[in-house]
Write the structure tokens for this entry.
Amino acid sequence: MVFLNVIGILMTLGAALVVLKSFLLWRGILRGGIFLFVLGFSFFALGFAIRIFELFPNSDLIFFAMGAAFMLLGAKKVFSLNPRGTDK
């Protein structure tokens, strides 16, 4: 349980960093990085809801994994952008 809380805190800090970075580089929203990140966050939140309400036993880790994968894809897409003026 402690491990899941640590993962949740790290994902929240990562979310704040990605959103801040994409708002500083408006191109991040246009390229879909934020969409992937929000999609991943929704899967992650669904995993927490399943864990809390125990809707489907032993299936919450699937949603955590899908959420983490989409969040990492979104973060990769946002952080791979070049700031304006550094395009070569």
